[in-house]
Amino acid sequence: MRKFRHLVEYAIFLLFSSFLRLLPLSWVQAIGRAFGRFTFKALGFRKGVTIDNLTRAFPEYRRERILRIACSAFESIGVSLFELLWVPRMTRESIRNLVHLENPEEIREVISRGRGLILVTAHFGNWEMCAQSVVAELGIPLHVVVKPQSNPYIDKQINERRELLGNKAIPMAHAVREISKALQEGHAVGIVGDQSAAKESLWIEFFGRKVPTHPGTAVFALRNSAPMMIGFTIRQPDSTYKLRFDEVPVADLTDFSPATVEELTRRHVQLTEAIIRQHPEQWMWMHRRWKHVPTDAGNTLAEVTR
Length: 306
Description:
This protein is an alpha/beta fold. The protein has a domain at 92-303: 3-Layer(aba) Sandwich (Glycerol-3-phosphate (1)-acyltransferase). It contains eleven helices and eleven strands. It has helices at residues 2-20, 25-43, 47-57, 63-86, 92-98, 104-111, 128-138, 152-162, 175-184, 216-223, 258-278, and strands at residues 99-101, 117-121, 142-146, 168-171, 188-192, 202-206, 209-213, 228-235, 241-247, 292-294, 301-303. A seven-stranded mixed β-sheet has the order 1-9-8-2-5-3-4, with helices on both faces. The chain has a two-stranded antiparallel sheet with strand order 6-7. It has a two-stranded antiparallel ribbon with strand order 10-11. The two termini are 28 Å apart.
């Protein structure tokens, strides 16, 4: 029964993505924006989670502004999703036209040091275009850590889009071995570093509340003496993107220890929060990032499941 359901979902996916590829990108982006708005206003998918997250992150905002940002965040995700479906029509030139990478030579210089490179981003703007832009602009393939989709047929199709220009998708289950190998060989690794983590992970402050945060990104950087850069695709009014990667300072973190791992994790989380505060409508607020939070009564954890 599950296989039959997966095949039906896969058929719908293929038909819809094939239809989108017949349209110009500007139309696809407009449809994605409308789809996101419909999902928020009509379907209410994770609407409560989104509004609660925004209200807690920006307690000074009036409800009208929170609702506008929430709707825009859904529109942003819709655009990103539909752009990913349109990727098979993209070329290196069209990706460079869509995403303006502001400092390619700085990235090239960092990776030329021969210690590999960790490129960190977040579910912001169109994070899928980060990896596509780097390989299109620099010709440097990335080993990108991805979360597998529940439908294996759709998962394969999405990864084929990610690998179109030479990037390599690494499932999370194989991340430790594959990332270490890639860094040791001097390759660049792409990590989306803002997902929710298990309660046993590092607790780092994010928008005024401590949340469990994956330490793996910092562990890979410090254990392998690999430089880390962080960057975000910022969607522009004309639906193109600006992208800039800046090196996260690590010169003062001279050893590999729990303290340095925590500090480096804190640094890339703070940089992520800073860009989200500038463009809150472009982050994935419907993600249950704060599903493990201390209650007001003490250290007992409360699960947010709306």
